[in-house]
Design a protein that fits this description.
By secondary structure, the chain is of the alpha/beta class. It has six helices and 17 strands. The protein folds into two domains: about 240 residues, QueA-like (3-Layer(aba) Sandwich), CATH 3.40.1780.10; about 80 residues, QueA-like (Thrombin, subunit H). Helices cover about 15% and strands about 25% of the residues. Helix 5 packs across helix 6. The protein is globular and about 65 Å long. It starts with about 40 loop residues before the first strand and ends with a strand. The relative contact order is 0.22.
């Protein structure tokens, strides 16, 4: 088994509270934009400090022939399940699948957790899916082995698509009318518990225009778990421990990235998950090898980026590891100033919100 990738944490005296900003609740987007690429786009120029206010379809004007867009093609699964205990059908349970350990064995967050003891048998979808708690792992999560009619269903994903719900973040309280809107148009590899949301702004038509301009769109994969969004509870950010997530960079993707970087093109990541994947595998000289495994990389101010030149991202929660990551790419003071501007300009925040291009 591969040793998880973790970065050598740079020394810092930055506190979690140093990444706080005040966000009015009404700016938290409850639903996606009517058209994916019509969301707003804040363009932040790192060298000049200039900020421009555009729409996402304008992103093509800031991309140059020879650039490479790195996307995360992980697909969100309907990971939220409601069921009960076999021996106590009246005892309702809610589980959120976090990570696949083996073919039909998943790590899951169970509510209420005290009911899910080792050996407990669970029922979902009126018996369409059954599970047994086989272990209790980190932070009280349960390891659940699932069973279903393998003659009727090819794999567990077929069952989840019938009885599972999309795992929307808790700050989204409105019902999602179309589950595809919490999925990128290029999603392919099933396994994420949350969407790589910066990619939600792309349409097939916009992607085609980008390719026609001479920009390569290259997939990598990182299955997004809740560790990415886990609150930072420590005062000093360097004491925070990131959960690991599975990633993969193919030979073909690595080849294209390296060739275009060598030719002078920029490497632009779509989303923090793509950024973390690239920086997890990047060598000191910026070369990208093909690799797969687990990463627990934590990027915050003081980190030296090895390969990433620019980033397309959404607006992130106060005091989050994602806000710390983008503050490492730009700088904390100016990034928080940009966020203050976004609040003043009434940008829409978080998963279904607007986008930022840090270039």
């Amino acid at each position: 088994m591969n040793t998880p990738i973790v970065n050598q944490k740079p020394a810092t005296d930055l506190k979690t509270s140093d990444f706080y900003y005040d966000l009015p609740e009404e700016l938290i987007a409850q639903h996606p934009a009517e058209q994916r690429d019509h969301s707003r786009l804040m363009v932040v120029h790192r060298e000049s400090g200039e900020i421009e206010h555009k729409h996402f379809y304008d992103i093509i004007d800031y991309l140059r022939p020879g650039d490479t867009l790195v996307i995360n093609d992980s697909k969100v699964i309907p990971a939220r399940l409601y069921g009960c205990m076999e021996r106590r059908p009246e005892a309702a349970l809610e589980i959120l699948l976090l990570r696949q350990h083996e073919l039909d064995t998943w790590e899951a967050l169970v509510k209420p957790g005290k009911r899910a003891r080792i050996g407990e048998k669970l029922i979902f979808g009126e018996g369409m899916l059954r599970g047994e708690v086989v272990d209790i792992v980190e932070e009280g999560n349960r390891l659940i082995r699932f069973d279903y009619d393998r003659e009727k269903y090819e794999n567990i994903y077929d069952v989840l698509n019938l009885i599972g719900l999309m795992p929307l973040p808790p700050y989204i309280t409105e019902k999602l009318a179309d589950r595809d809107r919490y999925q990128t148009v290029y999603a392919r590899e099933e396994g994420s518990a949350a969407a790589p949301t910066a990619g939600l702004h792309f349409t097939p038509e916009l992607m085609q225009k980008i390719r026609e301009k001479g920009i390569a769109i290259v997939p990598v994969m990182l299955h997004v778990g809740l560790g990415t969004f886990r609150p930072v509870k420590e005062d000093n950010i360097a004491d925070h421990l990131m959960h690991t997530e599975f990633f993969s960079v193919s030979e073909e993707s690595a080849r294209i990235i390296n060739e275009r970087k060598a030719a002078g093109g920029r490497l632009i990541c779509v989303g923090t998950t793509s950024c973390r994947t690239i920086e997890s595998v990047a060598e000191e000289d910026g070369h990208i090898p093909a690799r797969s495994g687990d990463t627990g990389i934590f990027i915050y101010p003081g980190y030296r980026f090895k390969a990433v030149d620019a980033l397309i991202t959404n607006f992130h929660l106060p005091e989050s590891t994602l806000l710390m990551l983008i503050s490492a790419l730009y700088n904390r003071e100016d990034m928080l100033a940009a966020y203050h501007t976004a609040v003043e300009e009434k940008y829409r925040f978080f998963s279904f919100g607007d986008a930022m291009f840090i270039c």
